[in-house]
Design goal:
By secondary structure, the protein is an alpha/beta fold. It contains four helices and four strands; from the N terminus they run E-H-E-H-H-E-E-H. Strand 1, helix 1 and strand 2 form a beta-alpha-beta unit.
């Protein structure tokens, strides 16, 4: 089974959105893909803006809690996608998977900026799954 890790700093917005879209893509395509998400400095809760824009697209992550990304999460993963954090903070030195760096910085730009970021994340997740197939 393929394993993909989505990581950012707070695990409260970008990586949560990416994981939600990856879950949807995995299910739509009928693929066996394990998904893990975490942050290098996890927040206490998921951003209200992220929750709202995902709900607008029929995705509910309200029951989730940000968590710390650990080396163990990555050890057997094929791909790590980072968004604003450095993979060197949690990727084991001897790991031989692929790191994809999505330059999606954390922002406080309000709901419209979060919608734009959501749409960009959805495009990138779809492309990632196209590559998997």
């Amino acid at each position: 089974m393929t394993k993909i890790v989505f990581a950012c700093v707070g695990n409260a917005g970008r990586s949560q959105m990416a994981t939600a879209y990856a879950e949807r893509e995995r299910d739509r395509r009928g693929l066996e893909v394990e998904l893990v998400t975490g942050g290098t400095e996890p927040k206490a809760s998921i951003s209200e803006d992220a929750l709202e824009v995902l709900e607008e697209d029929g995705l509910d992550v309200g029951g989730r809690t940000p968590r710390r990304i650990e080396s163990e999460d990555v050890a057997d993963a094929e791909t790590v996608v980072t968004m604003g954090c450095s993979a060197s903070e949690f990727v084991p030195e001897d790991w031989d998977g692929e790191v994809r760096i999505w330059s999606l910085e954390s922002h406080g730009g309000g709901i419209e900026a979060t919608r734009e970021q959501r749409d960009e994340i959805e495009r990138r997740v779809t492309a990632l799954f196209d590559d998997l197939e």
